[in-house]
Amino acid sequence: MTELPFQDRHDAGERLASHLSGRVTPPAVVLGLPRGGVPVAAEIARRLDLPLDVLVVRKLGVPGHEEFAMGAIASGGVTVVDEDLVTRLGIGPRALDAVIERERAELARREQAYRGDRAYPDLAAATVVLVDDGIATGATMRAAVQALRRLGAGRCIVAVPVAAPDSLTLLRDEADEVVCLAAPERFSSVGQWYRHFDQTSDAEVRQCLADAAAPGTPRG
After folding, report:
1. Where is the Phosphoribosyltransferase domain (predicted)?
2. What is the percentage of the chain residues whose pLDDT exceeds 90?
């Protein structure tokens, strides 16, 4: 396990890259989950000399408690819902559908904002390093892994700086490999494990992608 807290997302990405070095062989691509996962992914891509892209995923928040995930949706028409949680909380189909439709609209907006008309990279037979700044419930990352399967990824490595232990257990059943630097037992939120955890903006995501795509961008 690594020393906590991380200074910021860039520090987390540098440390993750060190752990991934030598474990990822081309063809490979690094995909960040917007928005907070993209600065982490950008550092990994830069240091491992790999292409950077994004995979848009949206959490489905419990009505009235939106920070608490009851599922997630992702590019490619993937929907993951925690049916047991939905039943326990008494969330009816109409309320669930309303959340899904709202998040689909935001997913489409972000797809356009970050990707425009660019097609996804060719993932067939490729290793995909799927990155976020941390994992709480794991619903968002699980949806992302399932989306990658639909997009034809050859191998999926989930790479995160910090995660809740229970969520890691679930993800290991879905991904080919999970690389996590820290899994503290007393986990309440991702942000508690960073000294600086400002919200990542759309502009920062676009800048990370532009910097990675620019000819002559220094790497390593």
Report:
1. 12-180
2. 71
From the list 165, 56, 36, 53, the residue with the least C-alpha distance to 111 is 56
144-157: b or e for each residue (b if 16 or more CB lie within 10 Å)?
bbbbbeebebebbb
Instruction: Report residue 173: phi and psi, to 5°.
Output: -80, -15
Q: What pTM value is reported for the model?
A: 0.89
Give the pLDDT of residue 187: 94
The pLDDT value given to residue 43: 97
Question: Where do the domains of the chain lie, and which CATH numbers do they carry?
Answer: 9-213 (3.40.50.2020)
In the predicted structure, residue 191 carries a pLDDT above the cut 90: yes
Q: Are 56 and 111 in contact (CB under 8 A)?
A: yes
Cis ω for the linkage preceding 172 (within 30 of 0): no
